[in-house]
Amino acid sequence: MTENKAKAVLDTKLKQLLITRKRTENVVSSNKDTAIKRQLEALKALTSEVETARREVEAIKIEKGEGDGD
User: Fold this and answer.
1) Has this prediction a pTM greater than 0.85?
2) Alpha-helix runs per DSSP H in 1-70
């Protein structure tokens, strides 16, 4: 994967996470156990995907010799 593609994937995942986070307040205030559990699973999955995408960008930068991965 190219660096630009990896960054695009990371950006998309971050946007998805922000959208899901914004929905969380309404879901929690609904007091519906099923909806809250589903929202929690969505947040966990997206967080994992963001971390994976972040590591991919970091690996590409390290391969290219750009910095120490910050």
Assistant:
1) no
2) 3-29, 33-63
